Every structure is written in structure tokens, then in C-alpha cells.
């Protein structure tokens, strides 16, 4: 049986923009996120408090956080890699902190400049401090299926990272198909392992759509009762440390699927369409979402 309700977290302003070469002025980011805030989305990841030398496109995270018009029905979260990032994020205003690391050693090293073992103490203190400040904490685990450097990642590597993050106190886990390479049998294999250990409410899936497999993988996940997914408006984005990776599943496309199936999301399609056209126009390029293309706008 498929879920009656699916919760989407909009990651376009973070995952979508982080790899963007064209600088999007702060006021445009704020206007765009305000449009998204008004669409019925329950959570928006609005930016990333990482080292701005690594992700220049989001170097204005603090200004964005301070200027947002906050809708009380929306949870505003941001990516936080370390204590310095957490300090800035708390100052700018967050409801939730998202910490992140990889199941693959090489991807972890390339992405956050540390081994998996050396990442644990950093994230432990960030998670504990964020919880003390009363924030919800999500733990992203990247490369849960395949790694661009190491190839297939065994589920036990994913499980050991999940175990640690939960032990440190994360509220939920977002599992990333970072390079968008998984097929449904891989999703089944991982969910078979995870769901014998953890309740499905703790699991979010984060599919990149590099090979057009995200919708098939989401359908498979929903058959397991998973009802929380990350998506990016228009399909904007890609990971700077995962060569060739495309953006997340487009919010527009997953909404087309969910609403077509009669699954509720609380999200207004028309407002998502407007916010898609806004960002498409600002960035001056056609976004890859298939249902956005099909709308002929
Ligand atoms: P580091 O650069 O390796 O080293 O940072 P450091 O900790 O020694 O710091 C070096 C310099 O950066 C210092 O400044 C720090 O103050 C500064 P300096 O003294 O040289 O002038 N610094 C910071 N400045 C601002 N905010 C901070 C911060 N931290 C240090 N928070 C770090 C380590 C993890 C911060 C770095 O490697 C980094 O920023 N990595 C970011 C990588 C990233 O953002 N990747 C993309 C997001 S993850 C993703 O997309 C995957 C996901 O979507 C799921 C999926 O798809 O699988 C989540
Ligand atoms: Mg991602």
C-alpha cells in the first residue's frame, strides 16, 4: 500500500544552487525562497554554512537567513559541517540543522576533507550543540548506493554511519543517491536492511536524477512505506564533489507523480510552477524537470 501523505523537503536553494556558476544575488535568493515558503512546503533547506571558499555560490548564507520572510508553517533548515557553521547558522536563524558525511571514505575525504573516523567527533559536537539549542537535526549520509571514486558501497558501510549519527542524536537520516545511479533493486536491498533496524519515520530518501531513475526509486521506496523525500525545484543542481552528477529529483516531477496517484502533499502545484519559472528566468537557463518542460512555459 502506498502512503496517503508524502512530505517533501525543498533543497533547491541549497543542493540546487551550490554548484551554480552564475552568482544569484541575495535579494533574488530571498525573493525565491519567500515564494517557496508560500507554496505549502513543510521544510526548505535555505542555504549552507560551509567554508565559502568551497561553495562560493552560497557564501551569503547568513544574509539570506536574516532576510527571509519566515512563514510559521515552514521549517527552515540549512547545511552545517562544523561548530563554526553552526554558530553562523544559529545567528542567521534555523529551525533545523543538517549535518552530512559519506558512507564512502574517498567521497568523505573529497567532500569534507576528513576521514570518516575524524568526521565523527566533529559531527557529534555539532549535533549535541544543535540539540541543546532546541533544533531538529537531520543526518545526511551520501553515496549510500554508489560512490564516484569507489564504485558500489556495501550496505554495512551505510549502516555503520547511520548507527553513529543516531547514537549522536540526529532526529532522522537522509540517505543520498549522490550520483543518481541506483536502480530499484539497490533501494530494496538497502531498505530491507535499514527497516529491520529503524522505524521508517526516521528515513528520508534523497535521490539525484542523473540517469532518470529517481522516480522509479521513489515509487519503490513508497512501496516500503517511506513517505519523506528531498527534491529540488525544476531539478536544479548537482554535487560539486561528485563529477557528472545532476540535480535532485525535480519537485515538479515528484509532485506530478504524487498528485496523479492521489497522494496528498499539501503543496500547491501552481505556486511551484511560478517559483520554477522565477528561478529559471533569473539563472537564464532551461531547468531539466520533465513536467516543467511539458508545461510549455
Ligand atoms: P576545511 O576547509 O577542510 O578546513 O573545512 P578547516 O576546518 O581547517 O578550515 C579552513 C578554513 O575554512 C578556515 O579559514 C576556517 O575558518 C574556514 P582560514 O583560517 O583558512 O581563513 N571555515 C569556515 N568558514 C565558514 N564557515 C564554516 C567554516 N569551516 C571552516 N563552516 C569543511 C572543512 C567541512 C568546512 C569544508 O571541507 C567544507 O566546507 N566542505 C563543504 C563541502 C560541501 O559543501 N559539499 C556539498 C554539500 S554535501 C552534498 O551536496 C551531499 C548531499 O546533498 C547529500 C547527497 O546528495 O548525497 C547533502
Ligand atoms: Mg545532494
From TrEMBL:
InterPro entries: Aldolase_TIM, HMGL, PYR_CT. Residues 6-273 form the Pyruvate carboxyltransferase domain. One of its GO terms (molecular function) is hydroxymethylglutaryl-CoA lyase activity. Signal peptide: none annotated. One of its GO terms (biological process) is L-leucine catabolic process. Keywords: Lyase, Metal-binding. Pfam families: HMGL-like (PF00682). PROSITE patterns: PYR_CT (PS50991). It comes from the Bacteria. Belongs to the HMG-CoA lyase family. This is Hydroxymethylglutaryl-CoA lyase. It comes from Oceanobacillus bengalensis.
Amino acid at each position: 500500500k502506498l502512503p496517503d501523505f508524502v512530505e517533501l523537503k525543498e533543497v533547491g536553494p541549497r543542493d540546487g544552487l551550490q554548484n551554480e556558476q552564475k552568482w544569484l544575488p541575495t535579494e533574488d535568493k530571498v525573493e525565491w525562497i519567500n515564494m517557496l515558503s508560500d507554496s505549502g512546503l513543510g521544510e526548505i533547506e535555505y542555504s549552507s554554512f560551509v567554508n565559502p571558499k568551497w561553495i562560493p555560490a552560497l557564501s551569503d548564507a547568513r544574509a539570506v537567513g536574516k532576510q527571509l520572510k519566515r512563514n510559521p508553517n515552514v521549517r527552515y533548515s540549512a547545511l552545517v559541517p562544523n561548530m563554526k557553521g553552526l554558530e553562523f547558522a544559529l545567528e542567521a536563524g534555523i529551525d533545523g540543522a543538517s549535518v552530512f558525511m559519506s558512507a564512502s571514505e574517498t567521497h568523505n575525504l573529497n567532500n569534507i576533507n576528513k576521514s570518516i573516523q575524524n568526521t565523527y567527533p566533529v559531527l557529534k559536537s555539532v549535533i549535541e550543540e544543535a540539540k541543546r539549542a532546541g533544533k531538529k537535526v537531520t543526518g545526511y549520509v551520501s553515496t549510500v548506493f554508489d560512490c564516484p571514486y569507489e564504485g558500489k558501497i556495501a550496505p554495512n558501510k551505510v549502516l555503520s554511519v547511520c548507527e553513529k549519527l543516531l547514537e549522536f542524536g540526529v532526529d532522522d537520516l537522509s540517505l543520498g543517491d549522490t550520483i543518481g545511479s541506483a536502480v530499484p533493486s539497490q533501494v530494496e536491498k538497502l531498505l530491507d536492511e535499514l527497516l529491520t533496524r529503524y522505524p521508517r519515520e526516521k528515513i528520508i530518501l534523497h535521490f539525484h536524477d542523473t540517469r532518470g531513475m529517481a522516480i522509479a526509486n521513489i515509487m519503490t521506496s513508497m512501496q516500503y512505506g517511506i513517505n519523506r523525500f528531498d527534491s529540488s525545484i525544476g531539478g536544479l543542481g548537482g554535487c560539486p564533489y561528485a563529477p557528472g552528477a545532476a540535480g535532485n529529483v525535480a519537485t515538479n516531477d515528484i509532485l506530478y507523480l504524487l498528485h496523479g496517484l492521489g497522494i496528498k502533499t499539501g503543496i500547491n502545484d501552481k505556486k511551484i510552477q511560478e517559483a520554477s519559472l522565477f528561478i529559471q528566468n533569473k539563472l537564464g537557463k532551461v531547468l531539466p524537470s520533465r513536467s516543467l518542460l511539458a508545461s510549455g512555459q
